[in-house]
Fold these 3 entries.
Entry 1:
Amino acid sequence: MTSYDLVVIGGGINGCGIARDAAGRGLSVALFEMRDLASGTSSASTKLIHGGLRYLEYYKFRLVRESLLEREVLWKIAPHIIWPLRFVLPYQAGLRPMWLIRLGLFLYDHIGGRKLLRATRTLDLTRSSAGKPLRPGMHYGFEYSDCWVDDSRLVVLTALSAAEHGARIATQARVVAAERRHGSWLLTVRHADGSEEAVGARMLVNAAGPWVADVLKTVGPVTSAAGIRLVQGSHIIVPRLFDHSRAYIFQNADNRIVFAIPYQRDFTLIGTTDRDWHDEPGKVAASAEEIAYLCAAASEYFLHAITPADVVATYSGVRPLYDDGASKAQEATRDYVLHLDEAEDAPLLSVFGGKITTYRRLAETALDRLGAYLPAEAQARRGWTGTAPLPGGDFAHDGYQHQVAALRRAYGFLPSALAQRLVRAYGTRASGLLGDSRSLADLGKHYGAGLYEKEVAYLMQHEWAKTTEDIIWRRTKLGLVLSSDEIAQLNQSVSLRKTASI
Ligand code: FAD
């Protein structure tokens, strides 16, 4: 039986963040994910690295400040998958008053250590290009900064970094039992082929997101754990609604806010909803009611009315929120709470809540909580994740165009759109993926939309992709543009490769 210093249950952003931090501090680490990396909530977010302007209304100053500070830290360690985004907030009479918005944005600009991101400014929507796609009557607005992230790639690159620091990352590996034995943990992991593996651990982290309470049941009796509140959030994707690069944040009459964000070049992403979820988290899907709500909310602002017939895709996720007893789902705290159970000297740390934005700080705090069990050298390395680039992110925060140009110089045959996508996904590692290719033909079979056999092989070899879905929805977002025939062809190749590797 293999034993590790630390075993993490759950390959979402929080589990991968903790695994990376711990492995980089010299601990032996294993992470088990029952499906694919990021297949839970971490691929269903609005994809923002943001302070969360609206959380200021709930006086969540600590959370907002920590999140704001993380924006530039994360942008610098992963400039290929994270970049600044300007948000336009049109002022609507009858909703939040102008002074309140100004005050919120003043705080947003000043409490978060902003150095690189541009400051807030006011907009005359009758003159600005941001006013053009909006309905008449909206005269003023504000424009402020946050960041965009490719959420599922953030998870995979964090896992890859953990692996490069020695962690074992196992997908399609479900932890089905865990018990304390003589001051450590004995786990049973069930693999995709039905085989079971016994694994030992000195420390156990439960980062199962919406399944955190289910895992606690598997683990047997634990001292009073915190409560979890599952809140569903859905998004719709429609053909591009405007031709500039800014996003919109719209206030709704129900006091909620809805974002409309440029997405994957040809689309606009609109979300999200907030409603309590009482079923198995894996069953979550956008309902007709949510789709109608999002269409109506966006149509309040855009000249072009949006109807469910415009929707080309949807996705939905379940927020695993710490239950603070708030009455409305939208008011439940987005802050994280870590619960440590130290029975029999075998610690179990469970993660409740949190945002993608705060995953790195959450990981540091998790290891602080386990500090008594860590060797001094591991404690001394606290903070290393704040400056070490994620795989492929070892270039300047504003160096994306330069990377694209360099890749095209080295691989003159690459069409511009493909070079851009590869740098966005793999950063400086795009050249490793392309290897010694000298023509498009060298990249192997073309499935469509610039997806070649070489990339598929790379994803299956180096990024734990095992199914077509892993490739087209989480490692890339090409599922949006590939036809069903192209997806069927890809499916065949993925199955063949899988069989060949068994
Ligand atoms: P998950 O990503 O759900 O990971 C948990 C993993 O554990 C899953 O992959 C699951 O398969 C695995 N697992 C469960 N049980 C087991 C087991 N027994 N064995 C092995 N594996 C197991 N945050 C932001 O910062 N910015 C945003 O813009 C944003 N927007 C959001 C919008 C929506 C609609 C939602 C729902 C959330 C949003 N969030 C956002 C919050 C953020 O997405 C989540 O807080 C975060 O992804 C949670 O990550 P996690 O790792 O805790 O959970």
Entry 2:
Amino acid sequence: MKKIIVIPGDGIGKEVTASAVEVLKKIDAKFNLGLEFEERDAGGTAYDKFGEPLPAETLDACKAADAVLFGAVGGKQWDNLPVDKRPEKALFGLRKGLGLYGNLRPVKVYDALIDGSPLKPELVSGSDLLIVRELVGGIYFGPRREAEIVDGVERAYDTEIYSVPEIERIVKLGFDSARKRRKKLTSVDKANVLASSRLWRRVVNDMAKNYPDVEVNHLYVDNAAMQLAVNPKQFDVIVTGNMFGDILSDEASVIGGSIGLMPSASIGELTSFYEPIHGSAPDIAGKNIANPMGTILSAAMLLRYSLNAENAAQAIEAAVDKTLADGYRTADIYQDGFKKIGTKEATEIICARL
Ligand code: IPM
Ligand code: MG
């Protein structure tokens, strides 16, 4: 048996995880993977029930699981809670608590959607890149002060801090990922300004000696942001720190056509964690219009990385491809002349194509 903890969370998280579980059950029946699902709460929903965005029981269940499938957290009604009760706190607690150091965000261009891209078709067509983002360190977790008063002036700070072992394990994940793909690694930093980036770059160059088959280059983050928009095809694997990866992965999702289609995997020490990169979209929650494909494709990554079930993963990816090629579109990617479908229809159509 393979135990999968499902955390729907808030907003559209509930609908899109339900879709992905349906797809996983169908694939399990075909490939005999022995999947077993258990639901747990996190985020605002958990706060409402238990007074905590991340109940200890949820974290413990995740630690013991073969993998975690996560929807999204957040919503207006919880925006004014103290920082440590807010829904996002659940995400950070899970990232830290499960040691989810390596966030993989693949960006693939769907030929069927290329006309809907805000970028020129000839520019994005054929792009296929993977962002490897460090997820449990850097400025997200470094020492910080909320507002403090110094000499009568209010100020606040956050600290970008990385140790050599922290850099080594994420950079290794970058090199190993590149080795399985087109063998090109771009490390993104701001070494012309930041000490932490200069250390980062040194570690990349040291480790490159162990990967003579992988071509390495370095880009400053400002230039990387521009290069993603002007020539995304130059990239295979990008490895970078927590905040640069956060920013660049939203930018890169535009290349793929819609954030609703973007999956992610967070590789951890205790277990690994799979979630769409879109948020909880409370404005469209419960209306059967959310695009479940990002979560369904995250479920495919779960099969690939946690269960080593590559064929099953590819079957899901092919079914999503086919659904788009057949002209079905959820509201976020809808264009005139196509067949408009809701969350449930999308799920059925994908299941039928497995
Ligand atoms: C992401 C999100 C989160 C992050 C937010 C919700 C805290 O933007 O997963 O990219 O910044 O890491
Ligand atoms: Mg983000």
Entry 3:
Amino acid sequence: MTSGATLKRRLTILGSTGSIGTNTLDVIRQLGGRSCFEIAAVTGNGNIELLAQQAMDVGAELAVTADERHYDSLKAALAGTGIEAAAGKSGLIEAAERDAGWVMAAIVGTAGLAPTLAAARRGADIALANKECLVSAGDLFVNAVTAGGGKLIPVDSEHSAIFQSLEDDQRHAVERIVLTASGGPFRTWSREQMAGVTADIARAHPNWSMGLKISIGSASMFNKALEMIEARHLFGVQPDQIEVIVHPQSIVHSMVGYTDGSVLAQLGCPDMRTAIGYALTYPLRTKLDVERLDFAKLSRLDFEAPDEVRFPALRLARTAMQRGGVQGAVMNAAEEIAFHAFVTGRIGFLEMADIAETVMESMADRAPALTMEDVFAADGEARARAEETISVNEKAA
Ligand code: NAD
Ligand code: MG
């Protein structure tokens, strides 16, 4: 490793072919590749060529496609390499259960929950990019990590910033968590303007280069809604201790306010590799080839209050946190279905929040989840209700 420290970590990357996954592999390469990291498993979905190439590049033991239909082509692509191939949900669990001390959880959506949980239960340290795990399963997920004996290190840039700004022995003195939000491409747009946008327009984020779902979620601010709930469970704060502030330059990645009036922040250029590197080498810091902040060239840092009327997702996150129980799972599942309906042209941009709210209202009285099965049941019911709402709206149109 370039910092001079010796670090040999055995790592599995769940979701290696995505935006976080490929950035993770770049960080691993920068930190010394095989001399510092041994890769137990990598997983992807439809991009078999990239998955097989990654597995060969890093010398993984196992490569898994989540889609069973691609098993034969993955096996063919890996023929003669000695790398094992597997597929489907059971293949993902097999990857998560390999004896790697560290797991990068970078599958998008609720599909990431079961494998990340499997890794947590066996005691792996989890570098957590997949925010949906925490939004859906909340404290049950955190408790699984704690019971397994592993650490949970956030990769989401805001949560990494908060994690880095938290003084371990002063947690009792935390007054508030301030999540920054870029405001996305529609920060200054009216609802009328947003009503007709396509997925191609909505996915063009001004500062960050990311996967499709999170890019659309940044435009609708559903991503920030998920991050509010993520922060609640990661840092054990109350809903009214979580603030969101729009900061269009994405330089201040988030902040922690203390009872003495101090505010600690973490700053940097918008590049996920910093947060990924921190999570993979924690508690060490290492040397990364990412752009440095040039303060003399930073003309200004702007902050403005978020508009919960134009971006109702933020209000929905507060509702979900106040209601507690399975409302996080319900909001997340309904939003995932609404996201797919938006990108396939079935519903408009603004309808995503309407559908999430309708489903949340219809399931407001559900009992809190005592087990993961309760979480999966609420998730399944919310998906079915969201689908039904979309179909009913389509027939009415
Ligand atoms: P992405 O769409 O680029 O990649 C997702 C990965 O998940 C890919 O490897 C894909 O093959 C895999 N995948 C997709 N569907 C799957 C399924 N059904 N089963 C198993 N695997 C599946 O997504 P991303 O932008 O890298 O985001 C990954 C996670 O990290 C998300 O939860 C996102 O919210 C979070 N995150 C991303 C960023 C970012 O900069 N991209 C920042 C913060 C947090
Ligand atoms: Mg984020």
